[in-house]
Amino acid sequence: MNMASAFILVLLASLPFVSAEATEYVFKLTCQDVTGVIKQDTTLPCSVESQYNDVTIKAVSLKKKGEKDSIFLYQNKKIEVNSRDISWADQKWPETVDATLVISNIEISDEGKYEYTILTDRGYTKAEFTVKVIAQYKTPIITSRPKTDVEDGKVVDLYCNASGGYPKGSIKWFDQYNTDWTKSAELQATVTEDKLVNLSSKLHIPNFDSSLAPYKCIVFNSKNVQEGEEQFEIHETGKLELSEKTKNVAAAAVVVIGSVAVGILLALLLFKRRRSQQARRPSTRPMLSDHHRWASDVEEVLNLSPEEIKKELSLNQPV
C-alpha cells in the first residue's frame, strides 16, 4: 500500500460512511456499468446527488475491486495517482456534481469491477460498476485446399480466418441455399499477447458439389451478432469462368484476327484478278477508275461462296 492510499484510509476512518442505499442521505454516488471499444476513450458515467449545496469534496479514489492501490486518486486539490490515464469528463470538477471519469485508450486488461469512493467534509460514499471491453473482428479471409482445379466428388477443405476480436466469437458456414454446414467444421481460437482472439475455422467437404457454391463463412461476436462475411466460389476443372476483362480481350482478338484473314483473302483475290485482267485482250468494255474497280472487286468477292473462294485460292497457287 502506498502513502497516498494510506492517507485516504485514515480520512475515511475518521468520517461517517453514508450508504448509497440509505433512505435518508447527505449525498449519494451513482455509477453505471459500461462497455468500451478497445483502443478508444471510454466514459465512466457517475453522478453525485446531495441534499446540500455546500458539500466540499476532499478526495476521490478509483480502484479495481479486491485491489489495495488506487489507479486514480484525487486529494489535496490535485491528482496524486493516475496509473491508467484517467481524467475528469467535466474539467470544472470538483466544482460540479458530475463525477464522470474518462479512461483513455481502453484495453482488455481494464475489464473488471471497480470501486469509486468520494470523500467530503460531511462523510463519504462509494459505488461499484463493471467495465467490459469489446473488439470487432476484422473481415474474414477464405482459402481452400486444393487452391484450384476442384472436381465434383473430390475432397475439399475450406478455411476461414478472422482476427483481432474480443471476446471469443464464432464462425458459421453456409452454401448458396443457406444450408448450415457448421457442424462439419472445426473452430480454433487463439489468444494473442494483447488478449485479442483470432478465429480459424476449417470446413471439410468429403464430396464436393459445385452446384452448392458459393460457400460463405459468417463471423459472429460473443453475443451472436454478425460482424463479417466472406464467400468463396470454387469452379470445376475445365469450367473456370473467364472474367469480363478476359472475355473482352478474347473478343477483340477474334475481331482483329478475322479482319486480317479477310484482308489477306481480298488481297489474294484482287491480285489474281489484276493478273488476269493484264493478260486479257483489250475489249469494248468501258474503262473503270481504280475506285470503281476496287468497289466492283470487293462486291464480287463478298458474293462468293466458301467453295468458290477455295477454288479461286487454288487457282492462284504458284506453279
Automatic annotation (TrEMBL):
Subcellular location field: Cell membrane
Organism: Chanos chanos
Membrane topology category: Single-pass type I membrane protein
Protein's gene: zgc:174863
Regions crossing the membrane: 249-271
One Pfam family matching this protein: V-set
Keywords associated with the record: Cell membrane, Disulfide bond, Glycoprotein, Immunoglobulin domain, Membrane, Receptor, Signal, Transmembrane, Transmembrane helix
Leader peptide range in chain numbering: 1-20
GO-annotated biological processes: cell surface receptor signaling pathway; cellular response to lipopolysaccharide; immune response; negative regulation of T cell proliferation; positive regulation of T cell proliferation; T cell costimulation
Name of the protein described by the UniProt record: Uncharacterized protein zgc:174863
One cellular component term from this protein's GO annotations in UniProt: external side of plasma membrane
High-level lineage: Eukaryota, Metazoa, Chordata, Craniata, Vertebrata
Ig-like domain location: 140-233
Main location: membrane
